[in-house]
TrEMBL record:
Residues 6-219 form the Cytidylate kinase domain. NCBIfam families: cmk. Its EC number is 2.7.4.25. Pfam families: Cytidylate_kin (PF02224). InterPro entries: Cytidylate_kin (IPR003136), Cytidylate_kinase_dom (IPR011994), P-loop_NTPase (IPR027417). This is Cytidylate kinase. It is found in: Cytoplasm.
Length: 222
């Protein structure tokens, strides 16, 4: 069977990673969480007191940092220089810093190259912000997921509560909005729907319903 690449983009909390994981698992494809790569860099920058506004120091740091995504049943386990940071990169501090880190040209250039290499063999599902526009402009299937900000904040909040983490719905809503604004207004590869992407509004849909729509779209292209 022909293998294709699938790009899943959209704003924070639209269900990208849940859907991408489910689709990858059903098709037996590789799942690549590109946001986790930016989060890993933000984590290591914060740890080393590196200014998140400085492209050159972040780019140099990235050059000397080994970020590995390991496939696992929970999605990707993430390692920075062999230290596992799967949970650490979801902290509030990293979430608050990541959009500044990801806005820099030098950082994005290196990340995009790595992501393209990971998807080289086809059979990959990548989720992020610029997969359909920049990382894989030739992906056979591009999906752009959206949902109301209230629904997205509620999903994140429920996720935190499920994991036993402290969580405040209003703070999450504000964080999501501010991250979206930064991601959509940055100069390089902003969050934007690719012209040939299929938009799905997930506000009223379950993750299973969205995954099954994406699988149907993929099967038409395989
Ligand atoms: O997907 P997630 O919310 O974990 O992504 C964290 C951040 O990483 C985003 O808010 C965005 O700033 C950045 N990102 C990006 N390009 C991608 C994936 C994520 O700029 N392809």
């Amino acid at each position: 069977m022909n293998k294709i690449n699938i790009a899943i983009d959209g704003p924070a909390g639209a269900g990208k990673s849940t859907v991408a994981k489910a689709v990858a698992s059903l098709l037996q494809y590789v799942y690549i969480d590109t946001g986790a790569m930016y989060r890993a860099l933000a984590w290591v920058a914060l740890k080393n007191n590196i200014d998140t506004q400085e492209d050159w120091s972040l780019s140099a740091l990235l050059q000397n940092t080994n970020i590995i995504l390991e496939p696992s049943s929970i999605g990707n386990r993430v390692f920075v220089n062999q230290e596992e940071v799967t949970d650490a990169i979801r902290s509030n501090e990293v979430t608050a810093a990541v959009s500044d880190v990801s806005a820099h040209a030098g950082v994005r250039e290196q990340m995009v190259k790595k992501q393209q290499q990971l998807a080289e063999g086809k059979g990959a599902v990548l989720d992020g912000r610029d997969i359909g526009t920049t990382v894989l402009p030739d992906a056979e299937l591009k999906v752009y997921l959206i949902a109301s900000v209230e629904e997205r904040a509620k999903r994140r909040h429920d996720e935190h509560v499920d994991k036993g983490r402290s969580s405040d719905l209003e703070t999450i809503r504000r964080d999501i909005q501010s991250r979206d604004e930064k991601d959509a207004s940055r100069e390089i590869s902003p969050l934007i729907k690719a012209e040939d992407a299929i938009e799905i509004d997930t506000t009223q849909l379950s993750a299973e319903e969205v995954a099954s729509r994406v699988i149907n779209l993929a099967e038409e292209r395989i």
